[in-house]
Amino acid sequence: MPLMLLRGSSMVWLQMRSGIWPSSTITLAQQMYNSHEFSAMPILADALQDANCDNDDILTHCRDPKQVHVRGCLLVNLVLGKS
Protein backbone atom coordinates (compact mmCIF):
# COMPACT_ATOMS: atom_id res chain seq x y z
CA MET A 1 0.00 0.00 0.00
CA PRO A 2 1.55 3.33 -1.03
CA LEU A 3 2.13 6.16 1.39
CA MET A 4 -0.07 9.12 0.60
CA LEU A 5 2.04 12.10 1.63
CA LEU A 6 0.06 14.85 -0.06
CA ARG A 7 -2.59 16.21 2.21
CA GLY A 8 -4.44 19.32 3.27
CA SER A 9 -4.08 22.35 1.06
CA SER A 10 -1.68 20.58 -1.32
CA MET A 11 -4.27 17.91 -2.09
CA VAL A 12 -7.00 20.47 -2.69
CA TRP A 13 -4.67 22.51 -4.90
CA LEU A 14 -3.92 19.57 -7.16
CA GLN A 15 -7.52 18.34 -7.32
CA MET A 16 -8.68 21.75 -8.48
CA ARG A 17 -6.13 21.74 -11.30
CA SER A 18 -6.28 18.11 -12.41
CA GLY A 19 -7.31 17.77 -16.02
CA ILE A 20 -5.64 20.99 -17.18
CA TRP A 21 -2.07 19.75 -17.43
CA PRO A 22 -0.23 19.91 -20.77
CA SER A 23 -0.42 16.70 -22.77
CA SER A 24 3.33 16.09 -22.31
CA THR A 25 2.86 16.11 -18.52
CA ILE A 26 -0.05 13.69 -18.75
CA THR A 27 1.92 11.45 -21.13
CA LEU A 28 4.84 11.28 -18.69
CA ALA A 29 2.54 10.42 -15.79
CA GLN A 30 0.78 7.79 -17.92
CA GLN A 31 4.08 6.17 -18.88
CA MET A 32 5.08 5.91 -15.22
CA TYR A 33 1.66 4.55 -14.29
CA ASN A 34 1.66 1.92 -17.07
CA SER A 35 5.25 0.77 -16.56
CA HIS A 36 5.25 0.87 -12.73
CA GLU A 37 8.56 2.75 -13.13
CA PHE A 38 8.65 6.00 -11.17
CA SER A 39 12.25 7.12 -11.55
CA ALA A 40 11.02 10.04 -13.69
CA MET A 41 9.22 11.68 -10.74
CA PRO A 42 11.76 14.54 -10.64
CA ILE A 43 11.07 15.12 -14.33
CA LEU A 44 7.35 15.16 -13.54
CA ALA A 45 8.11 17.85 -10.94
CA ASP A 46 9.84 19.92 -13.63
CA ALA A 47 6.88 19.44 -15.98
CA LEU A 48 4.41 20.46 -13.28
CA GLN A 49 6.54 23.50 -12.46
CA ASP A 50 6.67 24.44 -16.15
CA ALA A 51 2.86 24.23 -16.11
CA ASN A 52 2.80 26.84 -13.30
CA CYS A 53 2.65 24.51 -10.31
CA ASP A 54 4.37 26.42 -7.54
CA ASN A 55 3.30 24.26 -4.61
CA ASP A 56 6.40 23.29 -2.63
CA ASP A 57 4.75 20.21 -1.06
CA ILE A 58 3.94 18.76 -4.48
CA LEU A 59 7.30 19.58 -6.05
CA THR A 60 9.22 18.28 -3.03
CA HIS A 61 7.16 15.09 -3.05
CA CYS A 62 8.24 14.44 -6.65
CA ARG A 63 11.89 15.35 -6.13
CA ASP A 64 12.54 13.68 -2.78
CA PRO A 65 14.99 10.82 -3.45
CA LYS A 66 13.83 9.08 -0.26
CA GLN A 67 10.24 8.77 -1.51
CA VAL A 68 9.12 5.36 -2.68
CA HIS A 69 6.65 5.74 -5.53
CA VAL A 70 4.41 2.92 -6.69
CA ARG A 71 1.40 2.55 -8.92
CA GLY A 72 -1.37 4.25 -7.02
CA CYS A 73 0.77 7.29 -6.20
CA LEU A 74 -1.87 9.88 -5.45
CA LEU A 75 -0.03 12.64 -7.30
CA VAL A 76 0.29 10.62 -10.51
CA ASN A 77 -3.34 9.51 -10.24
CA LEU A 78 -4.54 13.09 -9.87
CA VAL A 79 -2.48 14.28 -12.84
CA LEU A 80 -4.14 11.49 -14.82
CA GLY A 81 -7.60 12.43 -13.54
CA LYS A 82 -7.99 9.18 -11.62
CA SER A 83 -9.65 9.17 -8.22
Number of helices: 5
Largest sheet: none
- As a whole number of angstroms, the C-alpha radius of gyration is 11 Å
**Structure summary, number of beta strands:** 0
Shape: globular
Which blocks of ≥5 consecutive residues have pLDDT under 50? 1-5
Write up this protein:
There is one protein chain. The chain is an all-alpha fold. It has one domain (9-79). Helices cover 55% and strands 0% of the residues. Helix 3 (41-50) packs antiparallel against helix 4. It is globular and about 25 Å long.
SSE inventory with pairings:
Layout: H1 9-17, H2 23-35, H3 41-50, H4 56-63, H5 74-79
Distinctive features:
single chain; 83 residues; mainly alpha; 55% helix; globular
A few lines on this structure:
By secondary structure, this protein is mostly helical. It has helices at residues 9-17, 23-35, 41-50, 56-63, 74-79. It has one domain (9-79).
